[in-house]
Amino acid sequence: MMLKTAVIFDSCLGSILSYNEKKEAIFEDYYLPDGFFIFYASDKGDMLQNRLLKTCDSQAKGALRQYKEEIASKSHNCNI
């Protein structure tokens, strides 16, 4: 049994069907691998993929903010 994996995009809406049908390369000569499918979502709406995209975006922004704070904190503690 082949596992199926969904990849959620918030761009390229006009190309998603071609990517999924392997009629268009996703990058250079690379096509979507077997078992992978692309779904479109935005941060608007209540469908599962929209909520997932919104949650991932929020978590990524929080992680980036925390990383920047840690870097700034470490640079202030430098004994150069």
Quick overview:
The chain is an alpha+beta fold. It has helices at residues 16-20, 48-76, and strands at 5-9, 36-40. 1% of the residues are buried.
Description:
- With 80 residues, the protein is α+β, with helices and mostly antiparallel strands.
- The protein has one domain (5-76).
- 42% of the residues lie in helices and 12% in strands.
- It is built from 2 helices and 2 strands; from the N terminus they run βαβα.
- The protein has helices at 16-20, 48-76; strands at 5-9, 36-40.
- It has a two-stranded parallel ribbon with strand order 1-2.
- Helix 1 links the parallel strand 1 (5-9) and strand 2 (36-40).
- The termini are far apart.
- The model has no long low-confidence stretch (mean pLDDT 89).
Rg: 18 Å
| Principal-axes shape call | elongated
- Taken as a percent bin, the fraction of beta residues is 5-15%
Q: What order do the helices and strands follow? A: EHEH
Widest beta sheet: strand line-up = 1-2
In terms of per-residue confidence, which ranges show pLDDT below 50 for 5 or more consecutive residues? Answer: none
Biggest sheet layout: 2 strands, parallel
Give me the secondary-structure category.
alpha+beta
- What integer is the average pLDDT? 89
The tally of strands reads 2
Count of domains: 1
Specify the number of helices: 2
Distance between the termini: 58 Å
Helix content: 40-55%
Provide keyphrases for this structure.
elongated; two-stranded parallel ribbon; alpha+beta
Write the layout of secondary structure elements.
Layout: E1 5-9, H1 16-20, E2 36-40, H2 48-76
